[in-house]
Design a protein that fits this description.
Blueprint lengths: L1 H9 L8 E3 L3 H11 L2 E3 L2 H5 L6 E4 L7 H9 L3 E5 L6 H14 L3 E4 L6 H12 L5 E9 L4 H6 L12 H17 L2 E9 L11 E8 L4 E7 L9 E6 L2 E6 L2 E7 L2 E2 L1 H7 L16 H15 L8 H20 L1 E4 L7 E5 L5
Parallel strand pairs: 1-2, 3-4, 4-5, 6-9
Antiparallel strand pairs: 6-10, 7-8, 7-14, 8-9, 10-11, 11-12, 12-13, 14-15
Helix pairs in contact: 1-10, 4-5, 5-11, 8-11
Bound molecules: nicotinamide-adenine-dinucleotide (NAD).
């Protein structure tokens, strides 16, 4: 991901890339050679620099906290890749440290900046779709065994978290952004194709929202060859369906809006078959937003709390899958409802 961040930073006139840190210094050196800046193998050396104002964190999912806390303590704003961390406790510590230090904290959830997603959010806020009744995500992706074997942390519970945590996270965040807080979750997970990994590669979750709306998230990295994610919202006044970056349906008040469909759509890869097959433009937009938030001392468009909200839903999915019970949010030790259900897998 650091290459995506570097390309995005280098495309922003107002930003300067100062350096890369990697515990494997050779990796930092290669990045610095390609994109500019200094290479370090100790984050403290970078944090000592007065000309560093923002740190973007692209280490494995379960290794964000220590760097985030050190950066906040050094007075640096942080942009932390999703998920912010693997537990609510660690994420809360990151958010609290940033608040204490008076620095901004933004979770990278760049799909919110995707043109049709941002347009859908504006449409929902205008009330044009009416109350949303149903929201579904179908993420039929494919990842190879080589992808999981490439780095020791992939497919592990302690450092990656699982397919929902690592990949469906973006789309769970989008549903939460569009539809508001989730009230309960009923889920099933399975490891169907990637037998060497520790976590699920497939799963389904039924979500009930506080608004009364319902939704389904169906996600997998075992669906060859992988197709673009489909997100569908059905409101009182119509339906919107987005597949990848293409708007397939924008039907409101009895009319299919062909103009909006053409204006908001483009053909672009969205990582369905390979982890690097997508554009860094959305990262650029999110980093631009953080710079503006710092300048104008406002919250970033995507906050640490936003990352926490999506994380809580993912953790509820895992708790439901483990217990076979419906799980209520906010998560607490007592969040499991006694209602068992018969599995579908
Ligand atoms: N926003 C997105 O669409 C998106 C896509 C892919 C990955 N990500 C996220 O980006 C992060 C990194 O994923 P990746 O695929 O680039 O992983 P990666 O394994 O390719 O890179 C992680 C790097 O971190 C280094 N590292 C590990 N511990 C470190 C430490 N303590 N200090 C400094 N460096 C350390 C590793 O040596 C490695 O070079 C993850 O949180 C992942 O979820 C986000």
């Amino acid at each position: 991901m650091s290459a995506f961040h570097a390309k995005a930073v280098n495309a922003i006139e107002d930003a300067r890339l100062i350096g890369f840190v990697d515990v494997v210094k050779e990796k930092a050196r290669r990045r610095a050679e390609e994109f500019g800046g200094q290479a370090y193998d100790d984050v403290r050396r970078l944090l000592e620099r007065k000309d560093v104002h923002v740190v973007t964190i692209c280490t494995p999912n379960g290794l964000h906290e220590e760097i985030a806390l050190a950066a906040a303590a050094a007075g640096k704003h942080i942009i932390v890749e999703k998920p912010p961390e693997l537990t609510l406790e660690r994420t809360d510590r990151i958010i609290a440290a940033c608040r204490r230090a008076g620095v901004k904290c933004s979770t990278v959830l760049q799909s919110r900046f995707r043109v049709p997603m941002a347009a859908l959010k504006r449409t929902l806020e205008s009330g044009a779709l009416g109350k949303v009744l149903v929201g579904d995500v179908t993420m039929k992706w494919f990842r190879t065994d080589a992808y999981y074997q490439r780095d020791a942390w992939r497919g592990t519970k302690s450092l990656e978290g699982g397919m929902f945590m690592h990949l469906a996270f973006h789309y769970i965040d989008l549903l939460r952004w569009f539809m508001g807080p989730v009230k309960s979750v009923l889920a099933k997970t399975a490891r169907l194709l990637h037998h060497a990994i520790e976590t699920e590669d497939t799963g389904m979750a039924i979500l009930e929202f506080a608004s009364g709306a319902v939704g389904i998230v169906e996600a997998s990295t075992a669906a060859k060859p992988g197709r673009d994610v489909r997100l569908e919202l059905h409101g009182e006044r119509g339906s919107v369906q987005i597949e990848g970056e293409r708007v397939q349906q924008w039907w409101i008040d009895g009319r299919e809006d062909e103009e909006a469909k053409a204006r908001l759509s483009r053909e672009a890869p969205t990582a369905s078959g390979s982890e690097t097959a997508f554009d860094w433009e959305e990262h650029r937009l999110q980093i631009l937003d953080v710079i503006d938030a710092i300048r104008n001392n406002r919250d970033p468009a995507v906050t640490g709390e936003d990352g926490r909200n999506a994380l809580e839903i993912v953790l509820a999915i895992y708790r439901s899958a483990e217990t076979g019970c419906e799980v209520t949010l906010p998560l607490s030790d007592e969040s499991v409802l006694g209602r068992h259900f018969s599995g579908i897998i």
